[in-house]
Amino acid sequence: MNKNQVAGAVKDAAGKVQQKVGEAVNSPEQQAKGIAKQAEGKTQKAAGNVQEAVKDAAKK
């Protein structure tokens, strides 16, 4: 795993928590921020996956 994969997974998890907190306190703004953070994390993790795939392909 590279740092983008790890950081992306952390952002995704933090976004899920933020979204659930927003739901609990009835804050649409916090829910939206949580969803946005999840999307950012998933994108960063996908970029890390591509980096790993390129690195693995270069080894072969």
Automatic annotation (TrEMBL):
It holds the Pfam family CsbD. Belongs to the UPF0337 (CsbD) family. Residues 1-60 are annotated as: Disordered. This is CsbD family protein. Residues 1-17 have a biased composition (Low complexity). Residues 4-56 form the CsbD-like domain. InterPro entries: CsbD (IPR008462), YjbJ_sf (IPR036629).
